[in-house]
User: What shape does this take?
Amino acid sequence: MKRILIAASPIALPFVALAAQIRNINDLISSLGNILNSVAPLVIGLAFLWFIWGVVKYITAGSEEEDRNKGRDMMIWGIIALFVMTSVWGLVGILSGTFELSNTQPTAPTIYNPRP
Assistant: This one.
């Protein structure tokens, strides 16, 4: 258990640094949004590589039916993953544009105080 904690500690350091910057729930939501915006293209790229690997497996299988089926299944799941991820990403973009959502903080209203 001790070895696992020692091995996992470098992975946890960015989260500790992120926690030091978070002061309220809005900062947390903004930070999570930034992380997801950074990770989304990476995940889409991985799905594309999965699809390409399926194409390679399908082409190199030759006449072996089992390997061709595995390659075909990888291509199908890669296309499904790409479609779902880009659709969700596009839908979020459309909804945030339609409802004018943004990551900026609204300005706090000023309260009229006639007495100094």
